[in-house]
Amino acid sequence: MKRRHFLTLTAAAAVTAGLAPRSRAAARTTGPHLATNTYPWGTFARRDGKTFVANTDDALATVASSGITGYEPALTAASAFDGLAARLKQHGLEMRSFYVNSVLHDPAQAEKSIADVLTIARRAGETGTKIIVTNPSPLRGGGTDAKTDAQLRDQAQALDRLGAELRKLGIALAYHNHDVELRHGAREYHHMLTATDPQNVKFCLDAHWVFRGCGNSQVALFDTLEHYGARIVELHLRQSRGGVWTEVFSAEGDIDYARLAGWLERKRMKPHLVLEQAVEKDSPKTLDGVAAHRQSLANARQVFAALG
Fold first, then answer.
1. Are strands 240-241 and 74-75 parallel, antiparallel or unpaired?
2. 173: confidence class by pLDDT, cuts 50, 70, 90
3. Residues 6+ apart with CB under 8 A from 271
4. What pairing do the DSSP bridges indicate for beta strands 172-175 and 201-206?
5. Which domains does the chain have, with CATH numbers?
6. Which candidate, 172, 158, 169, places its Cα nearest to that of 232?
7. Cα separation of 120 and 81, whole Å?
8. Which of 23, 38, 218, 249 is 20 to 30 A from 91, comparing alpha carbons?
9. Percent of the chain scored above 90 by pLDDT?
């Protein structure tokens, strides 16, 4: 391999794959490293009349019992790190990424929001975290409550500034969307990924939110790869059938994940893979959270084996 080509591949791998040291538990697994977001665990627990309290010993033990070795929580304060690194180590889990809320479309609130996120981020070194995911305060109304053009411009500027500050800490900021940002011609979604510097704002592709937000369209999902794929550093994984979330992630369903994995392989990209296979009102009810995640893990390892 020519030296220039080798250096190019090495640089790309540093952004997408080399995000944290592998733990002993992760080293024992086959295939790519996979994490789980805490959101789906809450949906399974609520369905069973239980609660899932993230970051506790019980929660981490439950996640670890599924065989998953990565953990992505939603953090709201720096105090969440108190004792967290030790608990993660005890249960053999890595935390390469976490999710934070942010309010960036209102300049008066954006300053505080950026400061809050940076305060949380400064403790990320305790867990080896290299990616922070945020979905800037979506307005759920989607009609008259949608963000104005002025608010979208302010939000993009604030998002870019936050990303630049996080880069100084050695952390990548990954923009994440739900379905609401795809309304009104997807103006919010596109502006966040058009009006920001790709060096400052990376992309956490949630394949199913793009699919659902565009009227259950795989065309829209795979067009997204062509437009913004180079910015992907993290991938959220969820499958559905007939538009309804399944209990278990698999290649079979509404989204052609084998095609998506093949696209990443051809581009020599290895984003952080995070299972977010949640359940909703009409989802099948045949498995508990641990069993569902255990099967999801096995299927995801098979689908994305080439990215290991």
1. unpaired
2. very high
3. 16, 17, 205, 232, 233, 234, 235, 264
4. parallel
5. 31-307 (3.20.20.150)
6. 172
7. 8
8. 249
9. 86
**Tokens coding 166:** 């996080």
CA distance 60 to 219: 37
17 falls in which pLDDT band (50, 70, 90)? very low
What average pLDDT does range 84-113 have in this prediction? 97
Is residue 187 pLDDT above 50, yes or no? yes
CA 259 vs CA 63, 193, 303: distances in Å: 28, 23, 9
Q: What is the pLDDT of residues 196-225, one digit of tens each?
A: 999 999 999 999 999 999 999 999 999 999
- pLDDT per residue as tens digits for the range 74-89: 999 999 999 999 999 9
100/132 Cα distance (integer angstroms): 7
> How many angstroms separate the Cα of 129 from the Cα of each of 21, 122, 206, 272?
10, 10, 19, 12
- Three-class SS of residue 34? strand
Tokens of 12: 């790309």
Which H, E and C letters describe 243-293, residue by residue?
A: CEECCCCCCCCCCCHHHHHHHHHHCCCCCEEEECCCCCCCCCCCCCHHHHH
What is the spatial distance between Cα 222 and Cα 286, in angstroms, rounded to a whole number? 31
pTM of the model: 0.89
Residue type at position 252: E
